[in-house]
Design brief:
The protein is mainly alpha-helical. About 50% of the residues lie in helices and about 10% in strands. The protein has one domain: Winged helix-like DNA-binding domain superfamily/Winged helix DNA-binding domain (Arc Repressor Mutant, subunit A), CATH 1.10.10.10.
């Protein structure tokens, strides 16, 4: 595990935030095409990179079909640690 203070933000950091905040508005998640429509201001490669990074970190699940935030993300949101 890396020291958080030494991590360099990924190029897709803003895209990752946008994905998580959007998915928190949709408890049942979104199908991939819906996600693409909702986040149409993101370049497809940036969105794909953000989804892959979030999936790798366990923040989202169901990357292939219906994308949802993880239980952990919901809990962090309930603790008001995720702010829009």
């Amino acid at each position: 595990m890396q020291d958080a203070s030494k991590q360099v933000p990924q190029p897709s950091s803003n895209a990752q935030r946008a994905v998580v905040l959007l998915l928190l508005e949709h408890p049942d998640g979104l199908a991939s095409p819906e996600l693409i429509i909702e986040l149409d201001d993101l370049a497809p490669d940036i969105l794909a990179e953000a989804l892959a990074a979030l999936a790798d970190e366990g923040v989202i699940a169901g990357h292939e079909e219906r994308v949802r935030v993880s239980r952990c993300a919901w809990h962090l949101d309930a603790l008001s640690l995720i702010c829009a």
